[in-house]
Amino acid sequence: MKKMLVAAIICLAAQTVSAQTSFGVKAGPNMSFLRYKIEAGSENQTWDGSRLGFQVGGVAQIGIAENFALQPELLFVMKGANGVRPAMSTNDIDFTLMTIDMPINFIYRNKGFFGGFGPNLQFGVSSKAKSDGDTYDMYDEDEASFFIQKRFEVGANVVAGYKLASGLAFSLNFAKGLTNSSKYNDDLDEATIKHNSSYIGLSIGYFFGK
Q1: Which of 18, 21, 69, 157: CA 20 to 30 A from 138?
Q2: How many beta carbons lie within 10 A of that of residue 118, not counting itself?
Q3: Which residues, given as ranges, of the chain have pLDDT below 70?
């Protein structure tokens, strides 16, 4: 009897969650920001840059209470920086990063408006640095020993938007990397590099079945 009751409760909960879940797609432009902080003994440098990019992918809203939901997303994101000029150099560097981002937001929604925050998990697909006509793969230690970086980065995401009754949705989000994605560490010269990226994205989306 108890097993039947537990099974009935689980089925009812699953049906309730399913009824409150909607799936959609989203896409739009972003402005990304990249920062390198170089620490070499007593000499410290910071290199900053930005560029226009885009994000596109899928999104879901999973209702967990009347006004609260989880909003996981799976996005393909282009970001990076153009025209970064290191100190004591005459050549600019252009960075282009392609990543798979998975923000998982805990959101509050009311009368179409929604907003919230959560972690963002990022996996690098491609990362290129271009300078003076040469292109370097920043995941390849043989090509980019100084700019070598990790593929995985943990960050945070904040999102706000409005969803129409038709299913059309507009959103603005800010995602920032919180971990150091640089793999460079020269113990001999006591030099380290800290690298992270962030972006502001504006998206238009559509939720199906709503």
Answers
A1: 157
A2: 17
A3: 1-19, 41-43, 85-90, 144, 185-190, 210
